[in-house]
């Protein structure tokens, strides 16, 4: 909730400080009362929840009093202001609470797709939207409900084939995907290319951040990857074409985000060869690739990152109900292509 206060473009500084404090104290109450979700199966009325949170704040105030009597008293005072809901800040924080509830509900539904009555839940949460009047918060709430609708439609539609092609730098992912896309009903999406395009886009607010991440071989946050990847994949799927996602996922967090945001059904092709072969191939292409991440120093960082994360990612992807297949990528590109093409035709 505090994040919405910080991000709000029209909240004056004196109100922002108070709103952030109120959000924190509101959440502190839930640390003792517990944040009750539909998965808990607890029939908690609004009155019961209020009593638990109020007692939670009082309890924490008593713990704080010996070391800081002022803030112990202030905590209860701010909580009471929130509950009364008459000041401008309290009214805004109440709306933020409703928005955060919508946001958390959407996350919950993404985690439990296929296990929840979406339409029934959607109808009840629509009522929360009516309690949000602030223009900036309203835009966020409408975006959440729009995504909720899209999620419902996604459950009702059969998804097209999604294939992850993973492997270390220089293993041949891009070459393979380009050839597969030419011969089969697939479109090639390179996450690395998406990041490089964003890095070189003068209008991008993330350009400098992506450049630093690439230089240090640090995996970018799942949110940023999904922001770039989601629209591209869904546009391809709307054309009833399969999607080859090259160089993704690079972390378990990215895989989980993909499952929640796009599809939880995919096949994985793991291209494998020795680090020596990967280094040789990257050095051979570095003269013409013009890629910042192909210089030797950055390449060694990329290999170290890949080696430290790949086993956990492969283990996670192996749990998916579709096949995960390892392919010897030390062979020629023609041999690798023939093997993977045969595999895709057989499995999909």
From TrEMBL:
<comment type="similarity">
    <text>Belongs to the adenylate kinase family.</text>
</comment>
<dbReference type="GO" id="GO:0006139">
    <property type="term" value="P:nucleobase-containing compound metabolic process"/>
</dbReference>
<dbReference type="InterPro" id="IPR027417">
    <property type="entry name" value="P-loop_NTPase"/>
</dbReference>
<dbReference type="GO" id="GO:0019205">
    <property type="term" value="F:nucleobase-containing compound kinase activity"/>
</dbReference>
<keyword id="KW-0547">Nucleotide-binding</keyword>
<dbReference type="InterPro" id="IPR033690">
    <property type="entry name" value="Adenylat_kinase_CS"/>
</dbReference>
<keyword id="KW-0418">Kinase</keyword>
<feature type="domain" description="HD">
    <location>
        <begin position="9"/>
        <end position="123"/>
    </location>
</feature>
<protein>
    <submittedName>
        <fullName>Cytidylate kinase</fullName>
    </submittedName>
</protein>
<dbReference type="InterPro" id="IPR006674">
    <property type="entry name" value="HD_domain"/>
</dbReference>
<dbReference type="Pfam" id="PF00406">
    <property type="entry name" value="ADK"/>
</dbReference>
<dbReference type="Pfam" id="PF13023">
    <property type="entry name" value="HD_3"/>
</dbReference>
<dbReference type="GO" id="GO:0005524">
    <property type="term" value="F:ATP binding"/>
</dbReference>
<keyword id="KW-0808">Transferase</keyword>
<dbReference type="InterPro" id="IPR000850">
    <property type="entry name" value="Adenylat/UMP-CMP_kin"/>
</dbReference>
């Amino acid at each position: 909730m505090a994040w919405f206060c910080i991000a709000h473009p029209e909240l004056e500084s004196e109100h922002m400080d108070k709103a952030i404090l109120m959000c924190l104290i509101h959440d502190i109450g839930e640390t003792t009362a517990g944040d009750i979700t539909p998965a808990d199966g607890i029939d908690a009325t609004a009155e019961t929840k209020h009593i638990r949170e109020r007692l939670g704040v009082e309890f924490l105030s008593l713990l704080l009093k010996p070391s800081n009597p002022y803030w112990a008293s202030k905590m209860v005072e701010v909580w009471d202001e929130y509950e009364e809901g008459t000041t401008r800040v309290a009214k805004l924080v109440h709306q933020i609470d409703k928005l955060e509830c919508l946001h958390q509900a959407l996350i919950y539904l993404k985690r439990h797709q296929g296990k929840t009555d979406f339409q029934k839940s959607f109808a009840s949460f629509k009522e929360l939207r009516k309690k949000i009047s602030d223009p900036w918060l309203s835009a966020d709430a409408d975006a959440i409900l729009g995504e909720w609708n899209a999620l419902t439609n996604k459950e009702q539609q059969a998804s097209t084939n999604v294939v992850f092609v993973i492997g270390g730098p220089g293993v041949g992912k891009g070459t393979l995907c380009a050839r597969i896309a030419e011969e089969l009903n697939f479109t090639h999406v390179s996450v690395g290319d998406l990041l490089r395009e964003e890095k070189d886009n003068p209008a991008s607010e993330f350009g400098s951040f992506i450049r630093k991440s690439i230089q240090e071989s640090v995996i970018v946050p799942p949110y940023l990857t999904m922001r770039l990847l989601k629209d591209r994949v869904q546009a391809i799927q709307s054309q009833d074409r399969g999607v080859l996602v090259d160089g993704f996922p690079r972390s378990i967090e990215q895989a989980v985000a993909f499952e929640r945001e796009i599809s939880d059904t995919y096949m994985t092709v793991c291209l494998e060869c020795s680090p020596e072969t990967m280094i040789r191939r990257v050095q051979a292409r570095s003269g013409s690739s013009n890629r910042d991440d192909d210089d030797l120093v950055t390449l060694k960082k990329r290999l170290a990152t890949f080696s430290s994360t790949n086993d956990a990612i492969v283990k996670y992807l192996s749990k998916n109900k579709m096949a995960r297949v390892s392919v010897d990528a030390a062979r020629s590109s023609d041999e690798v292509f023939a093997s993977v093409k045969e595999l895709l035709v057989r499995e999909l």
